[in-house]
Amino acid sequence: MIESRDGLLELELRAALTEVTIAGTTARMLAYNGSVPGPTLHLRPGDRMRVRLVNDLDKPTNLHTHGLLVSPDGAGDNPFLSVGPGEAFDYDIELPDDHPPGVFWYHPHRHGLVADQVFGGLYGAIVVDSEDWSEQAPRVVVVSDTTLSRGQVSDVSPMDRMQGRIGETVLVNGNVAPLLTAAAGSSERLLIINACVSRYLDLDLGDREMTVRGFDSGVFTPPLARKRVLVPPGGRVDLDAPVTETATDLVARAYDIGNMGMMMGSGAGPADATLLTLAPGETAGLAPSPGSSAASSSPRDLRDSSVDGARTLTLAMGMGGAGMRFLIDGRTFDGERTDHRVELGTVEEWTLRNTSPMAHPFHLHTWPMQVMSTHENPVDVRDVVDVPAGEEVTVRIAFDRHSGRTVYHCHILDHEDLGMMGVVEAT
Length: 427
Fold this sequence. Notes:
- By secondary structure, this protein is mainly beta.
- The chain contains 3 helices and 33 strands.
- It has helices at 114-120, 158-163, 413-417; strands spanning 2-3, 8-22, 25-32, 41-43, 48-55, 64-66, 88-94, 102-107, 124-128, 139-146, 148-149, 152-153, 169-172, 179-182, 187-194, 201-204, 210-215, 224-226, 228-231, 236-242, 248-253, 273-280, 309-320, 323-328, 340-342, 346-354, 360-364, 369-371, 381-382, 384-387, 392-399, 404-410, 421-426.
- A 6-stranded mixed beta sheet has the order 13-10-15-20-17-18, with no helix packed on it. It has a 6-stranded mixed beta sheet with strand order 24-23-26-31-28-29, with no helix packed on it.
- The longest helix is centred in the N-terminal third of the chain and has 7 residues, at 114-120.
- It is globular and about 55 Å long.
């Protein structure tokens, strides 16, 4: 874990093929600074983060600070940058003073290579809060999956890319089904990141109620009680899990997102996966978790705001060329093209329409989205919004900070690499 000091976090983040121990076996994986996941970064609102990204890979890469409300321009959270093999780039990212507390993450975003590099092991957690971690850090739970064969990450078939690859081994902070202990009768605050390329996490704690404090960078007031919690790829959840007298598994249930149907056949779906076990025992006593008391944690409610513009974005799939095409508004990604232009300071309502036979988790960089078609009373703000097959979801977006040019895309990362991404520019 690396913390900011006096408003500044500086580090070198080296991406390289490294020998690591995963699931009791030694394998060569992609890693940041020699570990899978990479170091957890602890920031506070108003901090500056300077990251020297060193590329020791044999292919280009870059860095995306997923969910942070920061500039997409220049040396910021810029998805159009490309850091070539043997090169380095100095990122300089400033958090606003009112940045919401929460759990975020970082990973590569070099178009065409994102799924391979995340599946290979390049990802890590970012936590923004104003708490003191000197006694004990909160429980950050980075969930990922991969498939290992002959001491390395397996290649992926074209069919699995089109369906969205599902790894055979599910990892939590680089381990398989770790044991977490705490005092019986207490609850554990878990900050869960879904860093899987395609796997949805349908969380089930043995049919026990969990308290959901919020998704992504949003906070629910009051928190919601749920027995099942769905976290799409790229999404995060902040929840309290009860610790009882008997050990309980937190399981990601198999979740059906649909398939390519008659167009290409269907790939194998995921099986249930035990993420971790919560058991009674000694605990070190956790520090307060992010967002525990910060007034800035309450997101802006856009339900009564004037809407300055409305758009419909259509997520679709169809045959073309050598296989399946993954489209937004009938087009595949072109980084030289700007698909939508918005005016800074406005509020827009976007309808996300999915005409395909598969679910697509829609991620917008820089500006969070408030889900309008929710049945919940709390303000529901996310940066990854699941759009089920054949359905549509309406969101409102306040383009109220940071001008610049960035992207929106499906966070099934294979689909992003295959073209399901577009460009938006705020001026």
